[in-house]
């Protein structure tokens, strides 16, 4: 099987990830480059490993996490579907087994809150890992006076942690937010759809999803 570590060394994939992030940068979006996809991969692996899934399942989730945003190279709209098609071409060309490709492209094609559904464990872990990556370092804009709501919300997050709790029955996203920069209501305004998706993804894994902001249980 082609491994996550091997794909991270692939120069073509590096080029696609970098180029996709550059396009998003031009559009004013937050960072979607190697820091993001690596964090998503590692978080998805943490979730599935903690729940006792096989090393093979964990590896597929890590690969899906690493490749999940390459579709932004085509267009931000429907980037999950175009990314899945790109991933199929890449992985098929590298000789990956069809069964493994099927799982990976299903996860990539279903990771976005617009159309995605947690169709399997790998997809559920990818959704939780992706939607929980909210942090100040993803904001590119250095001028606070020009922040839009997405910049404000991400920049306001002082600390973010996704972890399993209550004997692995709950997946909990804990955020510390500077309310002088962004209100909790701002967070819900732009992330409500994502949090709803996280709740459904957690259920796919037999978990309950909880959101804690500044020490308050909100979901």
Description:
- This protein has 219 residues and is α+β, with helices and mostly antiparallel strands.
- The chain has a single domain, classed as Hypothetical protein af1432.
- Helix content is 54%, strand content 11%.
- It is built from nine helices and four strands.
- The protein has helices at residues 4-8, 11-26, 34-50, 55-67, 79-93, 98-109, 121-131, 149-156, 184-204, and strands spanning 157-165, 170-177, 208-213, 216-217.
- A four-stranded mixed beta sheet has the order 1-2-3-4.
- Strand 1 and strand 2 form a beta hairpin.
- Helix 3 (34-50) runs antiparallel to helix 4 and helix 4 (55-67) crosses helix 6 (98-109).
- The longest helix has 21 residues, at 184-204.
- The radius of gyration is 17 Å and the shape is globular.
- The termini are far apart.
Structural class: alpha+beta
CATH class: Mainly Alpha
CATH architecture grouping: Orthogonal Bundle
Oligomer type: single chain
Main sheet: strand order? 1-2-3-4
Order of helices and strands: HHHHHHHHEEHEE
Please give the alpha-carbon distance between the first and last residues: 39 Å
CATH topology: Hypothetical protein af1432
How much of the residues is beta strand, in percent? 5-15%
Q: In total, how many domains does the architecture comprise?
A: 1
Shape: globular
- CA radius of gyration is 17 Å
Treating each run of at least 4 consecutive H or I residues as one helix, how many helices? 9
Instruction: Report low-confidence residues grouped into runs of 5 or more.
Output: none
Query: What percentage of residues falls in helices of 4 or more residues?
Result: 40-55%
For the sheet with most strands, the description reads:
4 strands, mixed
Mean pLDDT: 94
Structure summary, number of beta strands: 4
């Amino acid at each position: 099987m082609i491994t996550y570590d091997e794909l991270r060394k692939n120069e073509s994939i590096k080029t696609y990830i970098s180029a996709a992030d550059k396009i998003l940068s031009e559009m004013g979006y937050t960072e979607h480059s190697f820091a993001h996809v690596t964090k998503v991969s590692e978080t998805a692996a943490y979730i599935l490993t903690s729940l006792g899934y096989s090393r093979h399942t964990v590896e597929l989730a890590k690969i899906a996490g690493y490749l999940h945003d390459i579709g932004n190279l085509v267009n931000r709209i429907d980037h999950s579907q175009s990314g899945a098609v790109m991933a199929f071409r890449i992985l098929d060309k590298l000789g990956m087994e069809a069964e493994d490709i099927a799982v990976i492209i299903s996860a990539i094609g279903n990771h976005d809150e617009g159309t995605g559904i947690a169709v399997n464990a790998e997809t559920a872990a990818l959704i939780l890992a992706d939607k929980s990556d909210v942090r100040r370092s993803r904001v590119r804009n250095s001028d606070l006076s020009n922040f839009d709501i997405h910049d404000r919300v991400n920049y306001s997050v002082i600390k973010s942690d996704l972890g399993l709790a209550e004997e692995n029955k709950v997946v909990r996203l804990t955020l510390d937010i500077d309310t002088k920069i962004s209100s909790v209501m701002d967070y819900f305004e732009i992330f409500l759809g994502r949090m709803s998706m996280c709740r459904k993804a957690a259920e796919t894994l037999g978990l309950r999803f909880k959101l804690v902001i500044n020490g308050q249980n909100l979901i």
